[in-house]
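DM from R.C. (forwarded with permission)

"hey, sorry to bug you on a friday — could you get me a structure for this? deadline for the figure draft is monday and I only need the backbone to look sensible"
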Amino acid sequence: MTTVVHETASRLHGLYAEDDETTSRVWLGLRRFLVSDAVTEELYEDLEAVLGEDAARPSSADCAAITSRLRSATAELVNVVPRLITPYSEMDAKAVANQMPIVVLLSAERPAAGAEYGHLVRFANAVLTLLDLMGEAAEA
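My reply, with the result:
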């Protein structure tokens, strides 16, 4: 918890802006901060490792590690995405709301031996689709 002394607080009084441009920039910054724990460079690197143009098929151990990281990101996104959907958002709220359960179901799925790679590709595609639907709010 942060304490602000009276002298500091009195200097802050009246230092705000209400114009649309400033409000939009602050809102975008807050949304990006909100998703920063879930949408990281590591997440994009994992997606690139699985779905990238030059992606090689990862080993079983790498599949397990990437899947684990995608599951962690999914847990964060479950907490963040509902807070990002607003009536005036540039996100397609219905599409995001439809995609989130797909990501959650794939996160909970435990593939049979030998099917890990196929599951990982489907899971990574679902996460990437969700990030695409989230638009600039998901930019790392």
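R.C.: lifesaver. The chain has a mean pLDDT of 82.
me: no worries. Residues 92 and 111 are 31 Å apart (CA to CA).
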